[in-house]
Amino acid sequence: MKHLTARQVEDLEQAMAARMRVLATQIRQELAASDQQHYRDIAGAVTDTADEGLARALVDVDTEVIDRHVIELRDIEGARDRMKNGTYGICIDCGDAVAYERLAAYLTAKRCRDCQQRREHNYAQPGRPTL
Ligand SMILES: [Zn+2]
Fold first, then answer.
1. Ligand 1 centre from 92 Cα, in Å?
2. Residues with CB under 5 A from ligand 1 (ion)
3. Please, are residues 98 and 109 in contact by the beta-carbon 8 Å criterion?
4. Contacts of 15 (CB under 8 A, 6+ apart)
5. What HEC string does 19-44 produce?
6. Distance from residue 10's CA to the centre of ligand 1 (Å)
7. pLDDT digits (tens, 9 = 90+) for 44-91
């Protein structure tokens, strides 16, 4: 991720942290609103958990409502890991730099725009998810 300036990395990290806080709040609210006591218990327990541990605390939760939030939370955790080991912002298909503008718009992007478009073109089929 040599193509990113320290300032850009900092901005992306802050955007990720902010997004994680929003997701964590939504997940907690959704758990607390659940009609299942088990999920309400988890919501109470994770209030004391650091946001980074939230996804791990939710391993046995699989309601569809919170699922997409949990998936996004895990995606962002993955992006933060890649940032730590220096592979963030590198296209996993072609190895090229992913433009900062694309990362800023889509924090967890793993591919450059060209590779993503090629992938969607190759794999997209009616009724089948492209991600
Ligand atoms: Zn690429």
1. 7
2. 91, 93-94, 96, 112, 115
3. yes
4. 104, 107
5. HHHHHHHHHHHHHHCCCCHHHHHHHH
6. 23
7. 776 555 555 666 666 666 666 677 888 898 899 999 999 999 999 999
Q: What would the 3-class secondary structure string for the chain be?
A: CCCCCHHHHHHHHHHHHHHHHHHHHHHHHHHHCCCCHHHHHHHHHHCCCCHHHHHHHCCCCCCHHHHHHHHHHHHHHHHHHHHHHCCCCECCCCCCECCHHHHHHCCCCCCCHHHHHHHHHHHCECCECCC
**Structural tokens at position 115:** 């590779």
- Can you read off the two tokens belonging to residue 71? 């998936």
β-bridge mates for residue 97, sequence order: 90
The tokens describing 91, both together, are 């296209």
